[in-house]
Design goal:
This protein is mostly helical and 342 residues long. It contains twelve helices and no strands.
Length: 342
């Protein structure tokens, strides 16, 4: 009876196939680093704020409570952001540009700048330029219009608001006049301005980050952060430089004590409406202007080129939604407090 499973014996001339070991498994991808270098400045800011806050509580540093509290908040925010991972480094990432190349290039080659800062998120120089321009313009504006006129205008508008008690108005007038005249409190105002600016960019970056994800894109938080700052840099430089010039060309009586603190450049449709007669229409029309559209284009360009995988529709969709959201918030504030822009 024959074997049902015969064993096939190869002939002596048959060559056996060579054995090849399987390739090793791919190495696990290393996690992107965290910006741990932010932690020492964060601790310094927190400790400094705590000292100023203590001096404010002890009443030997005027305005120390608000200024110290702002610095403590900045330190905590910066320390928290130090745990957010940086974007991964890829082989074909663009080279890092120098500070001067980034500052000047954002005007004439923004795509190259956004690609570079997206791969190498460096934002301190741009942030300081915006912050110092804001502080410098605020100081010049205060000296040009005088603290008395600014404080009187603000408190007069507070008195026209129905739900603000008269005693609150009188106390606010004294406090604001003292803040505008006291050098220590002016320094505190500058500190609070920087803290507020950083918190604003951190919040806008979070909204841009979420917006890109909603539209199906992929972007790192620090990429959205540098995109927000560098998109604002040209607008800030243009507005502040022109506002400085107009501040000394125009008569102080022609400058609005509240609206003029933001900008004196009138490049939008707001010139068609009177803020006193139609405050809501004025702020809506003010959102449509050359610099506003330039800022919108820069933000969309920044998201598209700084992000890892952001389509044109995702970048523009996120930028437009954020622009509309900002306009809606301004309209709501104006509807609630119309007297402040009249």
């Amino acid at each position: 009876m024959s074997d049902l499973n015969p064993q096939i014996i190869p002939s002596p001339g048959t060559q056996q196939p060579e054995f090849h070991a399987p390739p090793p498994p791919p190495a696990p991808e290393l996690a992107a680093p965290r910006p741990t270098q932010l932690r020492i400045p964060a601790i310094v800011l927190f400790v400094l704020g705590l000292l100023i806050l203590t001096g404010g509580v002890a009443k030997f540093i005027p305005g120390g409570i608000s200024s110290g509290g702002a610095l403590c908040f900045w330190g905590l925010l910066l320390f928290g952001l130090s745990f957010v991972r940086l974007p991964r480094t890829v082989k074909d990432s663009p080279p890092a540009l120098s500070t001067m190349e980034r500052i000047t290039g954002i005007f004439y080659e923004p795509t190259r700048v956004f690609k570079s800062v997206g791969a190498h998120p460096r934002w301190l120089a741009a942030f300081l330029i915006i912050a110092f321009l804001n502080i410098g313009y605020a100081v010049a504006f205060r000296q040009r219009l005088t603290p008395e006129r600014i404080a009187a205008h603000v408190t007069d508008k507070m008195a026209q608001t129905p739900f603000i008690p008269p005693e609150v108005v009188e106390r606010a007038k004294v406090e604001q006049l003292e803040e505008l005249k006291n050098p220590v409190q002016q320094a505190g105002s500058a500190v609070k301005s920087m803290v507020g600016l950083f918190a604003y960019f951190a919040f806008i970056a979070a909204l841009l980050f979420l917006g890109v994800l909603v539209f199906g894109g992929k972007i790192n938080y620090w990429q959205s952060f540098v995109a927000a700052i560098y998109a604002a840099l040209p607008i800030s430089i243009i507005q502040r430089v022109l506002s400085f010039v107009l501040l000394y060309l125009k008569s102080p009586d022609e400058i609005h004590p509240i609206l003029g603190q933001e900008t004196l450049v009138q490049d939008n449709l707001g010139v068609l409406f009177s803020p006193a007669e139609s405050p809501v229409l004025f702020v809506i029309a003010s959102a449509f202007g050359l610099l506003a559209f330039y800022a919108l284009w820069l933000r969309a360009t920044g998201l598209r080129n700084a992000g890892e995988k952001v389509s044109k529709s995702a970048a523009w969709g996120t930028a437009i939604v954020l622009w509309v959201l900002g306009m809606v918030l301004v309209v709501i504030f104006t509807a609630l407090f119309p007297a402040f822009i009249s």
